[in-house]
């Protein structure tokens, strides 16, 4: 009898043990008892202007049960949000509206608590607590225009010199039509900047040019840059595309650029003239912005660019071209440089010193060189047959850099010369005019120098 009782006790103990282990395993692995704490995302830069809302996001696989947000200044704690959530929500996003702080307070801590719906921690759930330091910045950046060109023409350039100051400055740039942004280059001394800006030829209407300065707390100052605008005479050309051009030019250029070749002749040309052209223009812009000099400029000298020696001009800037195939319009494009031709494989020399920032094959442009001349100004040499310099080389005035050729989407040997402003092709004729450079560039920089030198 006693032996039976012992056996029963052992059996019951085993059942209890198995139940405890099974219960433990269930609790440990059950989604209802998940152990991961909620994640908190507080969208901030460490600075706050007391005007914009504070955006907070909470995430948890078992759902957010409750949250609490408060700020600390010294020993005081002020609750900003405190909420229990009824329905299961795996993500909760909300915004803390602005609130009043004493003017002498410059730093606060934002504390965030989040609890999930898990049954872990004795049914209390997982809890996350995080603190975030915020510097209070109520002041907008100082942003003044010191000097700028009197006017700007479509497809043309202008110069701007500005003063921008803020102890927490984040961004500063010149905006054209709120669409194109131009970087500001350090000029003369700290707090002063210069930029050459462009009116892109494809933008028909001039709206506004602004100096924009934004600090880390998102305080923003926008100052208008005053310009009078001038018209540009657009030349319209009709160009017939032959089957011979498609076979001997378009197809090889597309193949060399790793493009598939359509079966239709017109589609082949459009792919070369539209798709590949767009990619090439994007590459020019990217390489220009990536490699342009951002060093402080204290003295700036730029000479009028010269036409290729002994050449004739066969095409100019701002020619709007319509392309015909079998008497039908199949495409259109802007010609954005000067085409000069002389003898085959003519020497190409630089007018201005600078640094080579690009030398490579570039689709419709063929073998292409780009030279940086500081302040975001660059010169472009396309369709060359041979390079005499490499990327990174410093070139001097009148130095041979390449030879003309017929690489890219062209038939005959010539040089396509372009002028870039932060990667945007602008009217080279302006930069070939000594008086224009003096009145639109060097005089503006000199005027600004005097103002800066006379300031404390």
Q: What does this molecule look like?
A:
This protein is an alpha+beta fold. It folds into three domains: 31-136, Immunoglobulin-like, CATH 2.60.40; 142-231 and 442-454, Sandwich (Immunoglobulin-like), CATH 2.60.40.10; 235-426, Glucose Permease (Domain IIA), CATH 2.70.70.10. The chain is 21% helix and 41% strand. The chain is built from five helices and 32 strands. The protein has helices spanning 2-29, 243-256, 265-291, 428-431, 434-454; strands spanning 39-43, 47-48, 54-59, 64-73, 76-84, 91-96, 107-116, 127-136, 142-148, 151-153, 157-165, 169-176, 180-183, 185-186, 192-198, 209-215, 220-224, 228-230, 235-240, 312-315, 319-325, 328-335, 338-341, 347-349, 354-361, 367-372, 377-384, 386-387, 394-395, 400-403, 415-421, 424-426. The strands form eight sheets. Strands 20, 23, 25, 26, 27, 29, 31 and 32 form an eight-stranded antiparallel beta sheet that branches. It has a five-stranded mixed beta sheet with strand order 2-8-7-4-5, with no helix packed on it. Helix 2 (243-256) crosses helix 3. The longest helix has 28 residues, at 2-29. The chain starts with a helix and ends with a helix.
